[in-house]
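Hi Q.,

Before the meeting this afternoon, I wanted you to have the calcium ion prediction in hand. No need to reply - just skim if you have a minute. The sequence and ligand are here:
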Amino acid sequence: MAAGKGTRMKSKLPKVLHRLAGRALVHHVLDMAVALGARSAVLITGHGADAVEAACGPATGVAAGLAMNLVRQEPQLGTGHAVQQTVPVLPDDGLVLVLSGDVPLTQVQTLRALVDLCAGDSLALLTVDLPDPSGYGRVLRMGDSAEAPVQCIVEHKDASPAQRAVREIYSGIMAVPAPLLKTWLARLDNHNAQKEYYLTDIVKFAVADGVPVRAHKITDAVQVAGVNSPLQLAELERAFQLRLATTLMEQGVRIADPARFDVRGSLACGQDVAIDVNCIFEGLVSLGDDVSIGANCVIANATIANGAVIHPFTHIDGEKAGVTVGEGALVGPFARLRPGAVLGPQVHIGNFVEVKNSTLARGAKANHLAYLGDATVGERVNYGAGSITANYDGALKHRTVIGADVHVGSNCVLVAPVTIGAGGTVGGGSTITRDTPPGALSVARGRQIAIAGWKRPKK
Ligand code: UD1
Ligand code: CA
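Predicted structure with the ligand bound:
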């Protein structure tokens, strides 16, 4: 269900497209369906339907392996009305799991337990006790015992004071056999305080039809918490990150402060990895053994090999092409690695150095204030402060090849396409426009002159 407005987000973006851990809320929910091995998913859209459908349609590749049906609910007349819209595309067999597009943190094993409880012949409800159940549908039982059979769900606005005292609430998540769901949906009405078609009314139909209603009560309220406001979004983001940080720390990763750690994608870590505070990992990131990440780094789509050290304030974004940092390499502080940066073992990239679509072989160094774009850099090259590859002529990009053991002085411009011969030296301040011979000193700059006894102008 993803038709609701999300008024309290006060945003132009439909609520279910807001991101948690870098992924839209509704995508987290579709991920659950994929993990459960569902045959198909039906997404009910309404408010912002165009945007939600564009983000979830088959062409997007989300929910791979799941047949995706999109249905619209316009206007929104309640959760029962929402699910009624799915009837034309629901199969006549199997089981329907109702999920909310704004409840992103339900664990797959919880849903599996709910599906098992439904067992194809009963109605299974996911419930939880809340200290403050205000606003939620209350689960009413046929006796005082917490295990007594469920009688019905009464919505907060329809509930008597005694019913409101019940702390067990319906989470909004249920598992129900498809054929039964269809017959019950046909019987819903909107004779209630909100004049809405309540999906929760099917509980009393089940009881009347002699179909068992089973509640799966969990203790971890985060799993059924919805996002209605920026504050709740931030709270669930922290809960998600803490869960992930805990898992990594259990594997031995040393996270300086799990409250200042964010993964927006997937992070794989080897042994003896240490991560200082305020780091963000996005997309697919893999850190080898003994990798150390300094404070305040943003690292996206990168593979960092054993023993590499990323000093503070480094920004790495491999986007589609990826970034590779070799064994024992040193990067930063304040370095920037862009797509296609491939650093070999023991490479050093220092402060304010930008590397894009360039390969640096073992032991090459660019330690200060430099740019390497579309370059192939040989082993042990020393690339001086302030030097750049001029890789773009305004229309096309060209390559710079720097042979092994070259020493490029400071403040050089290597105008691509150009090759610096192995073992050569480029004098500081040179603008190199032609290939240089191996082993030579190449200098291309105004010759220094001295005018003896020069008198400065006077006033
Ligand atoms: C519903 C349940 C309530 C439960 C609560 C848990 C009903 C009648 N009540 O409350 O028992 O405790 O969820 O959060 O089902 N939606 C639509 N179309 C609509 C209305 C809602 O798609 O016409 C979607 C919303 O976008 C949201 C979900 O359904 O994803 C739940 O809607 P919400 O209004 O938050 O729940 P309630 O109906 O108040
Ligand atoms: Ca409502």
